[in-house]
Amino acid sequence: MSDVEKQRLVDGDSIGMTSQVGFLNKLLPEGSLHAGVFNIASATLGAGALTLPYALRKSGLIFGTFWLAFGMLTTIYSIKLLIDVIEAVRYSPAWKGPRNLDSYEGLSLYLFGPKMEYFVEAQIIIFCYGTAIAYVVAVGDILDPVRKLHFMPDAFKDHYGRQLVMVLFWTALMLPLSFLKNVNSLRFSSLLGVCSILILVAATIYHCAVNRLTDWDYDCVTPQDEAGSGCADDVEYFVFDGTTALTIPLIMLAYTCQVNVFSIYQELKDATPKKMMKISWLGMGGICFVVYALMGVFGYLDFLGDTQGNILKNNRFDPSENVFIAIAFVAIALTVVVAFPLVVFPCRDSIFSIILQPKADDRRETEEQARINPDLYEVASASSSHVYMPGPGAAGGQPRIYKKPPNWMHYSVSFSISFSALVIALAIPNIQVVFQFLGGLCSSVLCFVLPAAFMKKMIALETAYYAEGGDPEGVQDDDEEYPNLWTEPMLPKSCISKVCIEGLYWGGILAGIGSTVVSAISL
To answer: 173 exposed, middle or buried (CB, 10 Å; 0-12, 13-18, 19+)?
Structure first.
């Protein structure tokens, strides 16, 4: 993951937004290689970085860094599979479905059927909803040092002060923003999110350097049930115990970006698989891995055995004394506030699309009505409206069209999503617990299992097509729009490719199940 609104800076509503968009369009021209690298990096960097020092604590400095590198490589490979599938949908004569599919739901529908489509959409909804919970938990961590300042009311400083501050902050800022019907004006959080993570990484490196090169005066915050570990422990390079598996879901979540690949690839000028892979290597290897490695390594070296599940907890005593740390706290706080409605939005949109979509027999009539009165209808796709997507992104294929809900339904569903996220966050005070389950339950499926499953199915279709001699009548009537159809099998069929695809598929399943079980046991 992660964190979370990852949209390209376009369609700003205010004058300030317009100037920001103009600046960014000059700096990162739309459809350019540099814009693609920024898009995929901003779709990846997020709140998941807060837990990476803890991930290295659980696996060791070298072993944890290895998992970060392995996560980066498997992410790039999964992106390659998705791009190959997109190309096959566009140009393989073996494909009998629409050739403009560019969403997880669309591919799932035409490759595996409607049940899989709903399963994939549910995965994306759960991921967004879980991220909303994590944001509320992060608010508690961010405001923890603030509520303990000497001029704060005593109610904020007692045992339930953290929960009280979270409720007040949610009521004043997060709830009202979750009622927004249009999130275009908040898309600047893409840049804000990236900047806040970079500031936090710089602050972490600075904090580690200052404290490790001078007399250590940090007040350790290790829970009593972990007595014996602390900031004076030796560096652990390899850790193999019952909790080492907790590293895997945290890293899977940190690299979650695959849902955005369709939109990023669609927006590229003169898009080719080779160009997209270059973007993937530069974005993942050149930016995300470097940022994550610096965050994880220096965060762990700073606090060693006392490293908390959220690195902000370790720095909670510093904002009033260290300006650099204070700036990082403010940047993360602003990102969380702005990003919260952007994870509520796709959940709400998908719920409406499911309960308000027309019956199958009425869909064509609904589509006609939507063309006549577009202001009365919505077009929904969980991944196309998904907050991480860098583009305005309409999903290809068959997006669901439904009539706009009445205001009372809009506000009641928005409140239910937001309020339930608050309630769960109050009960789960540790952000790494949320991310562990999200990584195990959702990231494993969306990032690794599904790309491999899509490719396996496409290879099977192409193999069967050419085994039957290639039926020219099977080519669709509208294929004149795609004059460069493949004349021979183009998808990978070598033994090594098959092993890698199967490894990604079964590895994702095992990692998801195993890490989820370990996370549940470790509660």
So the answer is: middle
CB count in 10 Å sphere of residue 481: 9
Provide CB contacts within 8 A for 325, sequence distance 6+. Answer: 203, 207, 315, 318, 319
Rounded CA-CA distance 53/39 in Å is: 25
Indicate the SS3 state at residue 227. Answer: strand
Q: How many angstroms from the chain centroid is the CA of residue 127? A: 8
Q: How far apart are CA 367 and CA 486, in angstroms?
A: 32
Query: pLDDT tens digits, residue range 76-90?
Result: 999 999 999 998 888
Q: Which amino acid is at 435?
A: F
397 CB contacts (<8 Å, ≥6 apart)? 97, 98, 100, 101, 102, 103, 105, 106, 107, 109, 110
Largest CA distance in the chain: 80
User: Which are the contacts of 494, defined by CB distance < 8 A and separation ≥ 6?
Assistant: none
**Contact (Cβ atoms closer than 8 angstroms) between residue 482 and residue 90:** yes
Q: How far apart are CA 89 and CA 83, in angstroms?
A: 10
- Which tokens belong to 395? 């999903």
Residue 248 structure tokens: 């895997």
pLDDT by residue (tens digit) across 456-504? Answer: 999 998 888 887 776 544 444 445 555 556 666 677 778 899 999 999 9
Alpha carbon distance 344, 105 (integer Å):
19
Q: Enter the tokens of residue 292.
A: 């994550």
Q: Model's pTM, two decimal places?
A: 0.82
The pair of structure tokens assigned to 131 is 């991220």
* Count of CA atoms in the C-beta half-sphere (13 A) of 521: 11
Strand, helix or coil for residue 103: coil
DSSP 477: G
Q: Which of 419, 423, 431 is nearest to 138 (CA)?
A: 431
Report in angstroms the alpha-carbon separations of 392 from 46, 124, 216, 362, 497.
Answer: 20, 17, 49, 27, 34
Return all residues near 233 (Cβ < 8 A) that are at least 6 apart.
304, 305, 306
Quick check: 6 and 263 in contact, CB under 8 A? no
Number of helical (H) and strand (E) elements in the chain, helices listed first: 22, 2
Amino acid at 90: R
Burial class from Cβ neighbours inside 10 Å (0-12, 13-18, 19+) for residue 155 reads: exposed
Task: Note the residue count of the chain.
Answer: 523
